[in-house]
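Extended Data, record DNA recombination/repair protein RecA
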Amino acid sequence: GQGKDKVRQYLKDNPETAREIEQQIREQLLPDRAGGG
């Protein structure tokens, strides 16, 4: 739908934000690894 396209364009224009969001998602999906280092 349109929402996905808007988000995709936004992340393309804001790569730093995209990286932050990706990091947060990974921390939620992999809580064990996030704290371990």
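Summary. The chain has a mean pLDDT of 86.
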